[in-house]
UniProtKB/TrEMBL annotation:
The protein's name in its UniProt record: GNAT family N-acetyltransferase
InterPro entries the record matches: Acetyltransf_17, Acetyltransferase_Eis, Acyl_CoA_acyltransferase, Eis_dom, GNAT_dom, NAcTrfase_Eis, SCP2_sterol-bd_dom_sf
A Pfam cross-reference name: SCP2_2
Keywords: Acyltransferase, Transferase
Domain of life, per lineage: Bacteria
Binding-site list for acetyl-CoA: 82-84, 90-95, 118-119
Lineage: Bacteria, Bacillati, Actinomycetota, Actinomycetes, Kitasatosporales
Family under the similarity heading: Belongs to the acetyltransferase Eis family.
Claim: Zinc-finger is one of the keywords in the record: no
Amino acid sequence: MRIRSTTDEDLDVFVDTVHRAFGQFPETPVANGGRWWSALEMERGLLAVAPDGKPVGTAAAYSFELTLPGRIPVPAAGVTAVGVLPSHRRRGVLSAMMRHQLTEVRARGEFLSVLLASEAPIYGRFGYGPATSTARLTVQRHKAALAAPRALAPAADADGGSVEVMRRAECGEILEAVYDRYRRAQPGALSRPPRWWALGAGQPPVSPAPRYVAVHRDADGTADGYASYSLGSVGEQSTLTVDETIAADDAVFTALARYALGHDLVSQVVFRHVPPEHPLRWQLADVRAGEVGGHTDWLWVRLLDVPRALTARGWFTDGELVLDVQDPFLDEHGRYLLTVRDGRADCVPTDRRPDLSLDVRDLGAVYLGGTSPSTLVRAGHIRAHHPGAAAVADALFATDRSPHCLHWF
């Protein structure tokens, strides 16, 4: 078996192979685009080829920016379309592709890669750790009253802003601009390159699937948030499902939520991809009216250069920590002194006694601040070498804003 890079001429065989791996057929093309593979960067694709010349595995990567704590955007490889034909599994094909891909990511100068895991047990052995999570919030409309001491019309908020209802086809440029401002301020968020919007490559509202969009504008008329939604049925209940809510701040999110919760002819409202700790549930007059479900991991992070990764993100507490980091998949090991002063970090090799010993996947899990190191110490993933080590690590890795990722790839 050999691993080779792909070109544009390989698109059809690549798409066919990855669908065979998952036992699926390419879906009927959506009008005006919308096929996920239309945004593939074929120069970043890989094919595993058997001795008889037939492709048996695929892997690809997108060129994204990931926003780190401190509102710092950095290049990130978005790993996607990973699959091995059922006839060739458990023969080392996946491991070979992952090793080849990580080598190429490093060669491009990227110090981290990210992915969405189809199955949680797969990617930890390749050094990826779950760094963000997301949840679904379902609100029954008859219990949807907000506890705020004021009642506002669906089309206005206290700051003089307004909500305009548009069709998805009418507001593509608005969605692109609002999302781009949002992702630059939100740790854990990924960029959506212009070609994704142009091609409709992704899930709504990136795809051109029919949707209504509630666009929020501030007092000056500038769009600063949106909620993409559709109406349908879930079981016997008429349901308004919000694909995603993008907001400049909590006040804008509340205005959009009020709009959705006030929609007529709806029994329940489902907000998809809400941060698990989002305050909306607590804004309801009846705290039990908001049912949290579908809590799941979302973005997985893999560090390829520990010192570079740790010095790239922003920090909010001064201190120092010695980290002993194992990378079993790449057969690497390093011990680093992390020193943080005034929001900036220095990370250098050291032979000092470690405070924490951990796998690179656990470092990926805590990197964005979504999981505290002490949680992984208690879980037996991270070893603390003295009683105060976990508390110091918690303080250092804590962020001013919880990480969250909405982008599907």
